[in-house]
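Example (one chain per record):
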Amino acid sequence: MRRKRGGYGMQESYAGYGLTAGRAKALLNECREGKYVDLVQEAARQAEPRIAEWIVSSIMEGKSFDRMAVKWELGEAEMMPCCRNSFYAYRKFTLAILDDMLAGKEVGQMGNYNSGGHNRTHGRVEEYCRIDSFRLLQYADWFERLSDYGEYHYPVMGGKIYYNLMEDTARISHNGREYPLGLYKVPNVDGLSYRLYFLCPKRQKRVRHLYKKDGLYQCRKCARLNYGIQQRSGLSLIRRKMYWLVVKKLQYVDWEVDHPDLPIQDLWHIPKPRYMRWAKYDALMEEYRQLQKEYETMYNASLMKAFGRINKLLGYD
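Predicted structure:
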């Protein structure tokens, strides 16, 4: 049985971006018919200017990440400066921006009160280029180099990885720098195949991904990176939970149409979906009301904290 993907992170589903899967599919179909070319380009630039051209190609021409990856691994195209997960996250974000543009809404900007990230000490994983040891092994398998003693190269951002899987040796060369890169093999249960990992150049710890930061490929801990969802404030996270509950579980996808002036945390009525049992509906509504109480408590506490700081600055404390 497949384990259900959980969480309320933006990369888990379209719901995290304020879209339904049906609306996203409709937008993609319209774009591939040649509509909204200028709007898609502008939305992609707002989502992430570094990979805007790849996002536009994917949306307008239907090109997948893997299809574009083959091109740059063969040296026929420039390499994309982000990983697979980040690419599809930015593509979803682009569709959300495009949907807002078509609806005449202003695109939301980061930096508002309680938007999160004001005092962060770590960078975001999604903002950095990374290399994947599993992809390196897959690349070698594609070209039947798993049992070759020769040294081959794997293209990365700004350079190449020179590797020999039979001798478990590798070195990475990029942006005028070159240093050894450790490889570590973990046998699979069949006793024949194996999984390949990198050894972080700084800590020599086994990791799957290395991130390019400060001119050096290193593990997530050494690069002081974490995920975007970890940098969100408590209020933002509760709103995401509410959105997931209202749109996905209670199937109230038109709440913004029915209540254009109400935020997600202030809904006073959510209709019962057809064919849903009343017991389940009552349980979900109780969960939503509990989130509302939690949100109100946290919001009031944050306001009191802010007022305390203001009073202290004004000398009233």
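Caption: Residues 278-314 form the longest helix (37 residues).
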